[in-house]
Specification:
The chain has 8 helices and 2 strands, in the order E-H-H-H-H-H-H-H-H-E. With 206 residues, the chain is mainly α.
């Protein structure tokens, strides 16, 4: 996944949730209650759950962390995915110098996550993981339609998504929401999972 000149560093998920995303990455200030830190953290949790056992775990969580950063409102805002993708391409690398071949699928998944499935021009597991992770947190809107979930097994997580939302509705700290998720999902080993973060010599923003 990386070239011979770079080696990836990793962080346990709990530490990753302490650092990513930053409040000031969001276009809307303060970030929206509907699409802000709480929603983002829950989507990060579901991305980690849905991507476990695949090669896409780190990229799925990164994509979840960035998917709503450039929203202008809480409506459809069909261009917020492309705007967030452009933000990743232009602004994330100076903060976390991740290799281009690592970030490109992250950027693409974010670009297409808000586009209706028939119109998506990038056929990749990562976009389906992100769309279902995002979809599971529609429980907060009480309008999740299980028929719109794409991955085998995604529907099994709906009761847990409801629990996670009910227990984190008023929490805006991603790491606190991660701790709630660990309590709800004790058998998944989320605390032991690690995320690729940056290359040798890079110092992450903390």
């Amino acid at each position: 996944m990386t070239d011979n000149f770079h080696s990836m560093h990793t962080l346990p998920l709990s530490q990753f949730f302490e650092r990513v995303p930053h409040t000031d990455w969001f276009l809307r200030q303060p970030p929206s209650d509907m699409h802000g830190l709480g929603h983002t953290a829950r989507v990060m949790v579901w991305a980690a759950v849905l991507a476990r056992g695949t090669p896409w775990l780190s990229q799925a969580v990164w994509a979840a962390a960035c998917h709503d950063l450039r929203r202008q409102d809480d409506g459809r805002d069909r261009d917020h995915g492309p705007r967030a993708s452009e933000w990743i391409d232009q602004h994330l690398t100076p903060i976390y110098p991740l290799p281009a071949d690592f970030l490109e699928p992250v950027s693409q998944a974010v670009r297409w996550h808000c586009i209706p499935d028939p119109l998506i021009e990038w056929d990749h597991p990562l976009v389906r993981i992100l769309k279902d992770a995002d979809g599971l947190d529609r429980v907060r809107l009480w309008d999740l339609n299980p028929d719109y979930l794409r991955l085998p097994g995604s529907r099994d997580w709906i009761p847990y998504a409801e629990q996670l939302y009910c227990q984190s509705e008023f929490i805006q700290s991603p790491v606190e929401i991660f701790c709630v998720a660990v309590h709800i999902l004790p058998d998944l080993g989320l605390q032991e999972r690690c995320i690729d973060t940056f290359v040798d010599g890079a110092k992450p923003l903390v």
